[in-house]
Amino acid sequence: MGQVNCVVIAGAGIGGLCAALALAKQGVRVVVCEQAASLGEVGAGLQISPNALKVLRQLGLESELSQFVFKPQHAAIRDYKTGEYYLKSPLGKQAEARYGAPYWHLHRADLHQVLAAACAKAGVELVLNAVVIGYRENTELKQVCLLLEDGREFCADLLIGADGIRSKVREQMLGQECPIFMGQVAWRGVIPVSDLTVDVKPDACVWAGPGRHFVSYYLRGGDYVNFVAVEERSDWRSESWREEGDVEELKRAFADWHPEVSELIKSASSTFLWALNGRDELPTWHKGRVVLLGDACHPMLPFMAQGAAMAIEDGYILAKCLSNYALSDALLKYEQVRKPRATKIQQMSKANAGLYHMHGGVFGRMKLKALQAAGRFAPSVIQSKLDAVYGHDVTKN
Ligand SMILES: Cc1cc2nc3c(=O)[nH]c(=O)nc-3n(C[C@H](O)[C@H](O)[C@H](O)COP(=O)(O)OP(=O)(O)OC[C@H]3O[C@@H](n4cnc5c(N)ncnc54)[C@H](O)[C@@H]3O)c2cc1C
Questions:
Q1: Is the CB of 18 within 6 Å of ligand 1?
Q2: pLDDT given at position 243
C-alpha cells in the first residue's frame, strides 16, 4: 500500500474534523460524511488541556479560539458537604509556563464551529445527512468505499472511522458488540452567570461525594457556568443513551450538598441526561484500508476530561504517520503510538470514579485525605501524574 491521496472520514465530531483538517493541510483530498442534518455539538462545555491545545495551535486555530475561552485558575477537588479542598493544583499562568500552552474551558459548539470553518477553508468536503452503514474494500482497485444508508458511496485510499462510541465502522471491522454501560449517568447543563445566586470560583472544580460527583467551571470568558453532575446507577432503562434530564430529580440528588453546588443546580432550567458508556480495549484499531480514532476505538469515562483531547491527538498523529510512511506502516505506527497512551488514560479515568465517589466508605475518604497530604507535603507526586497527561506534546514527539 502506498501513500494516500484521498481519505474518507465517517463522522464530523471533534476527532473527525481534527483529522480532516490535519490531512487537508498536508494536501490530501478529504471527504467527511456526517449523519446529522446540520453541524453543531450539543450545548455543553469542554475542558481543553495543554496537550490538546498544542495540536489546535499547530493546526492554526489557537488565536481564533482564544476569543471564546475561559482560563481556570486551579484544578480543584472539594468535599461535597464541607467544601474542604482535597486538591488545589494551579492552572492559569503556572500551567501555561509549565506545559507551554494554557488550560482552556470552551463551549463545544465554539470549538466545533471553528474547526468546521477551518476545514471548509482547507478544502475539506463535508457531506451532511450521510448516515454510514458500513464499507466495502476493493483490494484490486486499492480502495475502500464508505456505504451510506441512502445508497451513496464514497471511495478513497483510506477510510477513517471517527463515528463515535457506536461506530458502524468499528462494528464492521470487529463485529457487533454493544458499548458497556459504566454504571454512571451524567446530567449536563450550562447556566448564564446572570441567573446565579452563588459565587462560583474560577476553577475547574470537582465536588466529591459518596456515589456521586459534581463538576463546575466557567465558559465563554466567564459568562456561563457549565456543570456535569454524575450519579452511580445500576441500570439505564431508556432506549436512548441521551435524554432530556429532569431538573427536579437532579435537585433532589444533590440537595444536601455544599451551597455552592445546590444553589448552582437551583439556577438550572434545563439539563440533558447521558448514560456513560465504555468499551474494553479493542484488539486492533485498523484493518486493511480502514482505521479508527477517538471514541470509536477508545471511549472513556469523562473523569480525566481527556476524551476529546485524545481524539484531537489521534487525528494529528494519524495525519503525521500518513505523511511519513506508506499506508500499512503508517496505520501500524499510529496504533503503536496512540494505543498505550489512550488505554492508560482510559484506566486513569476509571480509577477517578472510585476517588471522586469515595468508594470504600471511610477508606474512600482516606484516599482523598492522602491526596490532600500529598498536595501539601509531596506536590511533585501529583504534578508528575498531571505532567504525563498535560505535558505530552504530539506535535513534537
Ligand atoms: C459528560 C461528558 C463530559 C466530557 N467532558 C470532556 C472534557 O471536558 N474534555 C474532553 O477532552 N473530553 C470530554 N468528554 C469526552 C468527549 O466528549 C468525547 O470523547 C469526544 O467528543 C469524542 O469525539 P469523537 O469525535 O471521537 O466522537 P463524537 O464526538 O461522538 O463524534 C462522532 C460523530 O460521528 C457521527 N456519527 C455517528 N454515527 C454515524 C453514522 N452512522 N453515520 C454518520 N455519522 C455518524 C456523530 O453524529 C458525531 O458527529 C466528555 C464526555 C462526556 C459524556
A1: no
A2: 74
